[in-house]
Amino acid sequence: MVMARLGYGVRLLGRDCLAQTCAGRSVERSVIRWRSMTSEVRPASSQLFSVEQVQAGISALAAAGYDTETVWEQRVVWGDHDQFQHVNNVHFVRWFESARMWFANQLCQTPEFSDQRRQEINRGTGKSFILAGINVRYRKPVLYPDTILIGQACQLPLAKDRFILRAAAYSLAQQTIVAVSAQDCVTYDYTKLAKCDIPDDIRKALESRATHFDKKL
Fold first, then answer.
1. Signal peptide span per the entry (predicted)?
2. pTM score > 0.85 for this model?
3. Residue 18 falls within a domain, yes or no?
């Protein structure tokens, strides 16, 4: 294996790493020992929770009315903590945001959507939807290390030009839902920079992943 990085004169020759600074300073040699890795081998940090625990989390979200095909997995990092020694509340909003974009991506992965429509919906170049507001209710504090599963579903009934996307954050460490949200999404024509009625293709896709929620947040 030979790899060169211009500007710093770094080359990897087999297992030897020769590093030389561009200012002509002393040459440093070090030996890098490589451990063969296969696609089945994963670091210990990614094996904190078993497949059975993940499946139990998805089943719990399904029992609460959320779509199992658009579940988003979010790992908690140490830097998410604040001075009160738990994950800061603002991170939940970001997690729900990432999950919402994954929901939009999966929403248009059916034959009814052309490649152009997928691009319009996911890149905001045609008729898509945007967030008008979000309400989050926090049930339990979250601590590192943990992995969060976010389940989502469109709330019935849909309005003319908007819909409510409901979501729940399930903690694998605590084995329960730790936060829920209601996101007010408005359909928007990015070419006209104005609200629009929910397009037929989006409405049909949303209704296929929708449910009636008996409880408010």
1. none
2. no
3. no
